[in-house]
Design goal:
With 511 residues, the chain is mainly α. 70% of the residues lie in helices and 7% in strands. The chain has 14 helices and eight strands. The protein has a three-stranded antiparallel beta sheet with strand order 1-3-2, covered by helices on one side. A three-stranded mixed beta sheet has the order 6-7-8, covered by helices on one side. It has a two-stranded antiparallel ribbon with strand order 4-5. It is flat and about 200 Å long. About 2% of the residues have low confidence.
Amino acid sequence: MFLYVLAALVGAVLAMSVYLITRRILLKGQRDEILAKAEVEAEAIKNDKIHQAKERFLQLKSEHEKFVNEKNSQLREAENRIRQKENSINQQNNELQRKLREAESTRASLQAKQEVLAKKAEEYERLSAQANQQLETIAGMTAQDAKKLLVENMKAEARTEAQAYINDTMDEARLNAAKEAKRIVINTIQRTATETAIENAVTTFPIDNDEIKGRIIGREGRNIRALEAATGVEIVVDDTPDAILLSAFDPVRREVARLALHQLVIDGRIHPARIEEVVTKVQKQLEDEILETGKRTCIDLGIHGLNIELVRLIGRMKYRSSYGQNLLQHSREVANICSVMASELGLNAKLAKRAGLLHDIGKVSEEEPELPHALLGMKLAEQYKEKPEICNAIGAHHEEIEMTSIISPIVMIGDAISGARPGARREVIESYIKRLKGMEDLAASYPGVTKSYAIQAGRELRVIVGAEEVTDTQAAHLSADIAQKIQEEMTYPGQVKITVIRETRSVAYAK
């Protein structure tokens, strides 16, 4: 029994030894296989990295060569520019040397001519003295006696001519006294007129709470997009409490958007289809109200026979601000001022009132061409068959065309008085002065400019240049350059007229 057990143990030990030896042999084979595979993969990775490094090196080398070529090209261009400037300076130096030589030659020639003239003057004095002595001998009287006799004769003749001239002048003064008095009064009032500038392009729409603000915006903003598309107004919804901003340069569109929002908020139904329906309805109502406002204004002022389109434009003035002043109220006030002034001066008061009411219709035209509002208003008045005096008064009330009627300066004065009245218009005097000063400084920065003045509330810039430094051709180019620079760098209402003035003056004194 013991032997069996011992034999079993020996067999088990042998079996275990065989298993372990076999397992070690198998593990060694796998290890060698894994090591071989790892070496292959490492070699492949190494070759790949070397290939990538070579490609990166070639790329960097190409970029470096491109950079070096660009720098070399820039250096060559700089050398060419320097060489051209050097040639230009040499040419200018040669030209200057030539002019200096010519000036020296001219100075020597003038000096010689002066010496000749001095000798001739001495000879003239000597001959003149001899001639006077001979005349005294022949006439039997001295030069002083002859002078006294001539003076007495001329005094008598001058008294007669002076009296006749005085009589003619007094007759002419009596005939023109009334006309001259009117001109003096008008010019005096003109000099007292002033104006300032400010614009408004935003309307505030009040709301009760933020819930209404969210309904106006709609899901993913669809309501506000539909409202902007229908009205042409930008609707600004920000963190401002209890308010929405309506922004647009057209005041009628802002009013349509305001009324449409008001109706939508009251009704409570806010969706794209309802928005389009309400906007269409409000536009029609507003057009009817505009026409009714124009008719009521004409009846109040006693103005009849206006074309229906002009009446509609007058109604549109209610929704337009001129420098913060309501345009319709401003036009009514100008009409009344012009009527009173024309009556005091003995002119046609009805004609003056009509021109005063229509003077700013160019500001509310639905067309927006590149024209000042005065000239646009004049074209509209001509189109609708207004009288030439009224058309000229409209076009000339900012002195953009020549005044051909006595009504024109009255309208200009009435416009200035209405705008300059304290409290009529909002003033941002600092920005206004800064804009005018900026225009003047911009013009003064050009070579050859001696003075620059911004006039007509910044609508015109007059530039005075030195005649010796700027030619006529250069003056024309200068006005275009200044206009281009103002257009690119500055913000201004309407348009700015640039006038370059070049003149030559020769002054001499008789002693």
